[in-house]
Each structure stands twice: as structure tokens, then as C-alpha cells.
Amino acid sequence: HGHGHGHGHGHDDESKGHGNGHGGERNLSLNAAYIHALGDMIQSIGVMAAGAVVWWKPTWQIVDPLCTIFFAAIVVHTTTQVTSSTLRILLEGAPAGFDFEHLRSELEGIPGSRNCHCLHVWVLSPGLSAGSVHLTAENPEEAQERARRIFNDFGIEHTTIQVVKEGGEPPPCCSDDRKEHKEHRVNCAS
């Protein structure tokens, strides 16, 4: 039952036009620490400004809670990107702005390929995405290599590509006689 698994691991620091290269983003922890320090500085400026206004005009005590709310909103706004990136990683979401249908179209355009299914793309860490796909093709080795290059062109360097020779046995997760994989098959069928 001819199939192959490709596990391409390129490590170019340059993205290939899709914004997912290793060197494109800072470490998430460093980013969070930087934003935390910036937030502390902004809050301190707010406290000093409110204190100066209340010292200058004691009847303007409303300035203190207004400044607190204003600077808290700034801090929340600055943490949105880190929170979004963290959730995307934890929930194994697709990279932000990723054109999933374009990738599917490219994979379906591989010469001799008859079926592209169970296509998944997700974020492993900032700047590092993973992808997997099952293909049916006349020439599994050639289809696997072309699929690996297509994934690489989309900035997806960690891939698992399973290719079944046309007329061969389907992968276990897509066969009808494997009940334990029924839910997965429904979710990934094209």
C-alpha cells in the first residue's frame, strides 16, 4: 500500500512572501516582558500626571480615576497582540491572515494529483507553522516533493505529507472501516 511521509524541516530565516519565517518575529516572552515594562511606565506617568493635577487643583479629584481608566485602556490595547498570538498557538489556529484556499488550490494543482484532503495548517510558535495533508497521486514521490515545496513557499517549514498511490489503500484516518477515526474523517474530508 504505497504511501510516503514527508517531514521537511527547512530553516531559512527569510520568509517566502507569506509572513511565517523564523526571523520575522521576536520571542513571545520577550515581547510580553517589553509590553509589561512599557505598561508600568505608562501607568507611572498617569499616576504622576493625575497627582500633579490634583495637587494643583484639589477640587479636580475626578482626574485620578479618569487617568487610571485611560491608561488602563492603553495597556489593554498594547497587550492585545501578545494575547492573540498566545491564543493562536495554544488553540493551534492557522497563522494570522493565512490564505488556506490558495494553499489548497496549489496542492490540488500538482500534476498527477487526484485528491487533496485532510489539509491542516497551524501555528507551533511565533514565526513557525506546521502543515499536514493527504494526497492521492499517480507518482507519490514526485507529488510529495512538490507538496513539500508548495508548503515551503507558503512559509510552512514543518510538514507531514502522506501520499497514497492512485488506486492504493486509503490512509487509516480516511478509511470507512476505522470507527475510532470517524470524527476526524468527517472534519477533514474535502
From TrEMBL:
Keywords: Ion transport, Membrane, Transmembrane, Transmembrane helix, Transport, Zinc, Zinc transport. One of its GO terms (cellular component) is plasma membrane. InterPro entries: Cation_efflux, Cation_efflux_CTD, Cation_efflux_TM, Cation_efflux_TMD_sf, CDF/SLC30A. Belongs to the cation diffusion facilitator (CDF) transporter (TC 2.A.4) family. SLC30A subfamily. This is Cation efflux protein cytoplasmic domain-containing protein. Signal peptide: none annotated. It is a multi-pass membrane protein. Residues 22-91 form the Cation efflux protein transmembrane domain. One of its GO terms (molecular function) is zinc ion transmembrane transporter activity. Residues 97-163 form the Cation efflux protein cytoplasmic domain. It is found in: Membrane. Residues 1-23 are annotated as: Disordered.
